[in-house]
Amino acid sequence: MAGDSTRESDRILGDARRSLTVQRDGGTHRPARSIGRGSAKLKRDNIVKRITYFVGAVFAIMVTASVAGIILNGIGFTGVMAIALAVVVAAWVFGNFPKVKVPQRAELNRGDAKQLVGRTELWLEAQRPALPAPAADMVGKIGVQLDALGLQLDGVDQNHPAAREVRTLVGETLPQMVDSYRKIPAHLRTEKRAGATPDEQITRSLGKISEEIDHVTRQLADGALDDLAVRTRYLDYKYGDPDSPESERT
């Protein structure tokens, strides 16, 4: 009988571990793949938080069970089952909560420009299912571009003209465009108006925003490119150009 109860508790604990693993990987209904590293990092941070909470809960359960066992001189089969049930409940709770908080549009422009990029990626992922296929593909492209933009924004003065342009473009123009499209009833999105359907308009508009993000990224990268060119010329001057005939003779 004792062996049966031990096997049963082991089975329940095993189910709890598997449940946590499934939830950690996104649950039975897994969310769409992240469009960029910024949103992916926010999701990873959330998973780490869930696992930390779960480990803390299991530790608390075990400590409580140990104390109860000392006081009661053992917890018996009922106690073992109660522990297993508590672990299962903890696995379910922290496998589902806390959820990744999708920022509201009004929250996108808070913080510095680099934080804005990560939040916008997460916000765009939530809007993506409502967009037509070509526009959804463009959102994926924008996610990659936002990653590159985020790298360039690292350490940039928030009053830099390019940083201010990012705030306007990514924090205001882009979400306004998507929100305007989503307000249009679904049955009207394929009707032509002013020479194009709303589906075509949102796709074209996202394409223009994509081009502008690329322009801003290049603008921010100009300083690094110029610095690299200067350093390269300095090395050529000091040590010689390895491709030059003079260097080959020496």
Describe this structure in words.
The chain has 250 residues and is an all-alpha fold. The protein has two domains: 2-96; 105-239. It is built from eight helices and no strands. It has helices at residues 2-24, 37-72, 76-96, 113-127, 133-153, 161-182, 198-239, 245-249. Helix 1 runs parallel beside helix 3 and helix 2 packs antiparallel against helix 3. The longest helix is centred in the C-terminal third of the chain and has 42 residues, at 198-239. It is flat, with a radius of gyration of 27 Å. Residues 22-31 and 246-250 have low confidence and may be disordered.
List keywords for this structure.
single chain; 2 domains; 250 residues; mainly alpha
In short:
By secondary structure, the protein is mainly alpha-helical.
Helical percentage: over 70%
Task: Give the CA-CA distance, first to last residue.
Answer: 88 Å
Percentage beta strand: under 5%
Number of helices: 8
Poorly predicted sequence stretches spanning 5 or more consecutive residues: 22-31, 246-250
Q: Provide the number of structural domains.
A: 2
Mean pLDDT: 83
Number of strands: 0
Overall body shape: flat
Radius of gyration over all CA atoms, rounded: 27 Å
**Could you give a short account of the major beta sheet?**
none
Order of helices and strands: HHHHHHHH
